[in-house]
Amino acid sequence: MCSKEGLQSKLPLHKVLPFANVDGIGNRTSIFVQGCDIRCLYCHNPETQDVKFKEREVSIEDLIKEIEPYTPYVRGITVSGGEPTLYHKQLEVLFDELHKQNLTCYVDSNGYFDRERIASLIEVTDKFLFDVKTLDSSGDLIGVKKTGNLENLKYLLKLGKVEEVRHVALTSFVDSENVVRQISEILKDYPEVLFRIIKVHTRGCMHEDLIKDKVPSNRFMGNLGKIASDIGVKLVRVQL
Amino acid sequence: MLSNKQELFETATSSSLTYQQKIAGLANAAIRLQDPRELLNYSEKDWEFIQNGMICDLNEGYLLHTPRYIVPDYEVLVEKGCDFLDITPPKDLDELLDDLLMMYAHIPSVTTFPVYIGNLDTLFEPFLDGLTDEVVYPKIKRFLNHIDKVFTDAFVHADIGPKATRAGYLILRAVVELENPVPNMTFNYDEEISDEKFALACVDSCLRVSKPSFSNVKEYTKVVGKHAIVSCYNSLPIGGGAYGLLRYRLGTIAIASKDTDDMINNLLPELGKSINHMMDERIDFVVQKSNFFESNFLVKEGFLSRDKFTSMIAIVGLADAVDNLLQKEGLNETFGTSERGDEIALAIMDKVKEINDAHETKYMERTNDHYLLHAQVGAQITPEDVDNTPAHRVKVGEEPILPIHINQASKFYKYFDAGTGDLYPFDQTYIDHPDAVLDIIKGAFHQGTRYITTYVENSDLIRVTGYLVKKSEVEKANNDKAVLRNTTWFGKGSEEYNSVFERRITK
Ligand code: SF4
After folding, report:
1. How far is the CA of B324 from the centre of ligand 1 (A)?
2. Is the peptide bond before A72 cis (omega within 30 degrees of 0)?
3. Under-50 pLDDT residues of chain A
């Protein structure tokens, strides 16, 4: 895509958060895109799943203008969703432009992407915030049958492009203990990468009724944290 | 305002003032007994502008005996001790801390309490050699606590930085543990000199106990040279200070203006003549008649020198002025979010600067024979201040979102070489992310902001316009009970007039 044309390409947008302090180190501008390729039971932004419900569509050029007043105060942007990698072509243009302004560009992904297809996005992405939802391919948790995404994780880790790995823990629909173990076995060799283990929150989510009695106890969460540390992960944060 | 017997009587018999406050109040009333038209050659016009509230002299009085703000060079104490107090140069940390406390009690000030108590970490650091943190920490903590209980006024100001020192870290630790309003504190921050870890510790402290604030030391050094941040964000020369402060009440002036053009091209120039004349006369009196510079030990012993003094012409109520003029232009917009509003504001400030630049004056060699402009964030003292939001700040409740707000505010810092500052509250989540706040501070400094402070909502110790008060003490004062701190009274005024406790919070 030539740059001029790329700047005009459109991105379905859910919202822009000028300042966010939870998407990586420092202050960042968060951009939420619309549209996701999976259907997590606990999705808190179900309205972002379907591209039909987009708040608006903006060109990359206009998006850059929109965030310009915020950029003096942030280290960069984080694109969340929805699933940002669905728009790898547009984001590639966006990131190229923002790099010219010395801003770092992060992608917050569910990890189920085809890395060949989005290779050029990976190249221009500074860091990924990488979600590991589940490792089985039943589709119980994520609504679609997909195989695990640990290979993608390993690939990005080797490139030094992972800021943090996340797992949202439940007592059912996913074997959280196994997920934590497997991630930890990988992360123990990457002491600079944060592993965030998050207790599922049900309020306001898509299928509250299905998961409200699948919320782990604090003790269960503590145990997951301990498993990760015992395996040798240096930076573990348990979020209750 | 002139005082009278009735005022003296009411002060003496008040049920809500402490002993110290009564003494200070009576002394202040005494120097407002004589009419400045006789004593200071004020013209009828000058006096009219004081009477109708367009120019405010902060009730500083007329029979002037001392410069308003004294900024002693405390390094002199370390080097030479003090003859007047019979102090020899301190040999260890204990002596230094004692000597400083003794000095503070003798620093004259318009508030009766010292508005500057030194760049504390650089003063302490050379005395820490060979002492462990366990030994030093309790001493520093006691010292700071002593200041809070004896110098009961939140305009008492300490500086730290820009370099990270062990003393600096220990001061921060004590400040967080004590949660005292006094002393107010500034971190002189320089991205290139201050190390990141120390800057983050300062942010963390600021989020927890609303101090230290961040000053862009490099920028202020460019315009004021060797300086300290004192009182309510005044950047003043060390070893000198400021003779006085008079302020334009822009909100009040706008009320009396026909339109924008009338304010800028008729009223401001006329007021400018008066404000400069009154300031000249006041300084003449302090320098020539008060005998301060002939008799005070600080001058004789080199803590101060006359040629390091400047003086401040300040503004308040830029927001109110602009809102008023926008209305007169038929625009339903407000300062902070109005493009035309910013144009008007910049035009007003350009005029104020032009008037100041055109006035050369005596006894002002330290600042190139000119007064320094200042945007006053402090005192809310009379009902007139209802119509005059502090400095160039956006009115509470009318702030745009934070990044837009900082961009807007940053346009105005360049005018105020003698200091100004804005404050931005954050929500609780930022306590875990001082790095995010530091990013914002750095960005603000790059945009032209020179001074920034912040606090987290829901703490008892919060910032009112510039100084710190305990919310719980303001509640007491509202019930007319005597409270420890003078500044609580100002806090009370601000709460009533400007509802600062409800400033927009960044979530
Ligand atoms: S990955 Fe899951 S949680 Fe995230 S937007 Fe898609 S469905 Fe929602």
Report:
1. 49
2. no
3. none
DSSP string covering A207-228, please?
A: THHHHTT-PPPHHHHHHHHHHH
Q: Domain residues for A143? A: 4-239
Q: ipTM higher than 0.90?
A: no
- In a mutational test of the pocket of ligand 1, which residue from A38, A39, A44, A87 has the highest number of ligand atoms less than 8 Å from its CB? A38
pTM above 0.90, yes or no: no
From A66, which residue of chain B is nearest by alpha-carbon distance? B404
Where residue A18 sits, what CATH number does that domain have?
A: 3.20.20.70
Find, among A89, A94, A80, the residue nearest to A33 by Cα.
A80
Per-position b or e across B243-252, b if 16+ CB within 10 A of its CB:
bbbbbbbbbb
DSSP B440-474: HHHHHHHHT--EEEEEETT-SEEEETTEEEEHHHH
Question: Which burial class, exposed, middle or buried, applies to B84 when counting CB atoms under 10 A from its CB (0-12, 13-18, 19+)?
Answer: middle
Q: Which residues contact A82 (CB under 8 A, 6 or more apart)?
A: A14, A32, A33, A34, A35, A36, A45, A48, A49
Two tokens at B355?
A: 């008037």
Q: What is the pLDDT of residues B162-175, one digit of tens each?
A: 999 999 999 999 99
Q: What are phi and psi of A138, to 5 degrees?
A: -70, -30
**Contacting A residues, span 9-38, partner chain B, CB-CB under 8 Å:** 18-19, 21-22, 25-28
CA of A85 to the centre of ligand 1 (A): 12
Decide if B440 and A69 are in contact by the 8 Å CB cutoff. Answer: no
Domain count, chain A: 1
Statement: residue B502 has pLDDT above 60: no
Radius of gyration over every alpha carbon of chain A, rounded to an integer in angstroms: 18
- What SS3 state is found at B184? strand
Residue B403: which of A26, A28, A73 has the nearest Cβ? Answer: A73
> What is the CA B345 to chain-centroid distance, rounded?
22
